[in-house]
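Example 212, ligand glutathione.
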Amino acid sequence: MELHSFFNSSTSYRVRIALALKKLDFDFVPVNIRVLDHKKPEYVARNPGASVPLLDDDGFELGQSLAIIDYLDAKYPEPRLIPQDLKQRARVLEISNLIACDMHPLNNLRVLRYLVTTLGVSDEAKNGWYHHWVAEGFQSLEKMLERTNSDKFCVGGQVSLADCCLVPQVANAARMGCNLGAYPRVMAVYEHCNTLEAFQQAAPANQPDYQA
Ligand SMILES: N[C@@H](CCC(=O)N[C@@H](CS)C(=O)NCC(=O)O)C(=O)O
């Protein structure tokens, strides 16, 4: 199995966490999105989404981090990251979709680049955009975690896809200097997950392509 990943990519980070939780070995293939490796024709031929991550499981090539984690979960169910219980599964997907569909796309590299290079937005306005969407997303996430009565993990006292999404999103926001003090439940989940070896193994600083 190969994972095409960039150390600082939060979507790659989600999949790295899932692989580490499931204790799956994989070959690491770096894709430097800062120099547009993900736009090279040979890469796009394998991942039409032109983004990281890409999983290659014995020739089966799959993009989209949530689809990859769902695939891994079906193939290697231990530990299960998408619960089978109807309502817990719905809550896990609700939180994961908030992060993956509402938050992450607005602050993705190509969107931030478009703001600056095509729309001529200043760096200050671009940072304001980033902080605005992070704050809006985390306000919703905090309320969702109140509803699930989260403690160590987002849902049901066990690790799930939602935690694989939350940790990279918080790490990204912290790196961008966002004030996260207003989200105690979000931060409690983040801090607890980061005590676990799988989350540490998947962290950007522990990747072979890490650059300070
Ligand atoms: N929905 C996709 C998003 C993938 C994605 O956009 N990844 C980012 C890195 S976090 C990327 O490759 N960005 C390159 C760009 O924006 O040009 C997923 O979950 O895998």
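Summary: Residues 2-79 form a domain with the Glutaredoxin fold (CATH 3.40.30.10).
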